[in-house]
Specification:
By secondary structure, this protein is an all-alpha fold. The protein has 2 domains: about 160 residues, no CATH class; about 80 residues, no CATH class. The protein is about 80% helix and about 0% strand. The protein contains 10 helices and no strands. Helix 2 crosses helix 4 and helix 4 packs across helix 6. The chain is globular and about 65 Å long. About 15% of the residues are buried.
Length: about 240
């Protein structure tokens, strides 16, 4: 890979967004993620017997998680492809593909560019503007990671205290938090248009049918593939609703 020539005032950002240093940083981030994944998988298998889980149950759980991640991963991949011309492969891989949010990153990049009276992808989108936008995205992601690092031990102490007071509380709180988060996300979407509402209802029905059939027919794989099937059915429903 040739060494890129950096010129802050140049609108030829290809030389910068594909810079070897950015590729090296992206490779380092992915190496850390792969190492973490290996450590987590080993820890899961080591702790499984103490939790009363068999190797088959652990394998099934991992497989279910992998299948459930396919749909969201495809959505992220589509967004990442659309952002490649703006930010380049290394930046998109590390920000949107791993620890970032496409909506936040684009907003942060747009705001930072606006402070310099520039526009993303426009004639004023120079190497300097890209550097500012990438810095804004990275600082925002760093704040999230530091918040998790600082707040996790604090919340863990609170969790331990609540379990001593009433163990049943910590069985209810996580479930309530998940329901609240998913309800908020769903409500935000369904109010946009009738197509959004129908899509959500169809996807929920498809997931319900998969769970029901898995129970009635004793086919655990239907439960594992339920989210993927629901996403495909929802995409089909959205297509027909918008095409109508």
């Amino acid at each position: 890979m040739a060494v890129a020539v950096v010129d802050p005032s140049s609108t030829e950002i290809t030389t910068l967004i594909q810079h070897p240093v950015l590729w090296a940083c992206a490779a380092g981030v992915f190496a850390v993620v792969i190492l973490q994944s290996v450590i987590y998988f080993r820890a899961i298998r080591k702790a499984a017997p103490a939790a009363g889980l068999t190797p088959a149950q652990v394998t099934s759980s991992v497989r279910s998680g992998a299948v459930a991640a396919i749909g969201p991963s495809l959505a992220v991949a589509l967004i990442a492809v659309s952002l490649l011309p703006l930010f380049g492969t290394p930046a998109v891989l590390t920000r949107v593909g791993l620890v970032g949010s496409a909506a936040f990153d684009v907003a942060a990049a747009g705001i930072s560019a606006g402070t310099q009276h520039a526009q993303l992808g426009g004639p004023t989108y120079t190497q300097k503007i890209f550097a500012l936008a990438f810095a804004a995205m990275t600082i925002g992601g760093l704040a999230w990671m530091l918040s998790a690092l600082i707040l996790t031990p604090i919340l863990s102490k609170g969790d331990a205290t609540l379990r001593k007071v009433n163990p049943a509380v910590m069985a209810i709180v996580p479930t309530a938090a998940l329901l609240g988060a998913f309800f908020t996300l769903a409500f935000t979407e369904v109010v946009k248009s009738p197509a959004h509402l129908v899509t959500m209802i169809v996807s929920a029905a498809a997931m319900g049918v998969c769970i029901l059939l898995a129970h009635k027919l004793r086919r655990p794989w239907l439960r594992e593939w339920g989210l993927g099937i629901a996403i495909i059915v929802a995409l089909a429903a959205a297509f027909f609703m918008t095409a109508a």
